[in-house]
């Protein structure tokens, strides 16, 4: 199934070619440094002013699922 979806499970340098990164916990500073510029980070980010600044500095587009409106 993963092959049909063009997805793969990897270890090590998992972010180097990523254009979309999903997370269930806020990223660490180490994770943010590893995510490529221009990537999209989607998940439970618990955004703080510091995280927003770090995302902007790293040119990472963050989407905090807990902040999206629900119907």
3D structure, described in words:
It is a single chain. The protein has helices at residues 29-34, 49-57, and strands at 20-23, 40-43, 61-64. The protein is α/β, with parallel strands linked by helices and 71 residues long. A three-stranded parallel sheet has the order 1-2-3, with helices on one face. Helix 1 (29-34) links the parallel strand 1 and strand 2 (40-43).
Topology:
Blueprint: E1 20-23, H1 29-34, E2 40-43, H2 49-57, E3 61-64
Parallel strand pairs: 1-2, 2-3
Low-confidence stretches: none
* Range of strand content: 15-25%
- The beta-strand count equals 3
Task: List the total number of helices.
Answer: 2
Report the order of strands and helices. EHEHE
Which percent bin holds the helix content?
10-25%
Class from helix and strand fractions = alpha/beta
Main sheet strand line-up:
1-2-3
Distance between the termini: 31 Å
Q: What characteristic shape results from the CA principal axes?
A: globular
Q: Mean pLDDT across all residues, rounded?
A: 87
Give the biggest sheet: 3 strands, parallel
Using only C-alpha atoms, the radius of gyration works out to 13 Å
Q: What are the salient characteristics of this protein?
A:
single chain; alpha/beta; 21% helix; 71 residues
């Amino acid at each position: 199934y993963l092959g049909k979806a063009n997805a793969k499970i990897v270890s090590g340098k998992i972010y180097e070619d990523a254009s979309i990164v999903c997370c269930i916990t806020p990223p660490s500073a180490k994770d943010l440094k590893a995510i490529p510029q221009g990537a999209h980070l989607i998940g439970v980010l618990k955004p703080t002013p510091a995280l927003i600044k770090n995302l902007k500095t790293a040119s990472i587009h963050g989407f905090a699922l807990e902040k999206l409106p629900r119907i």
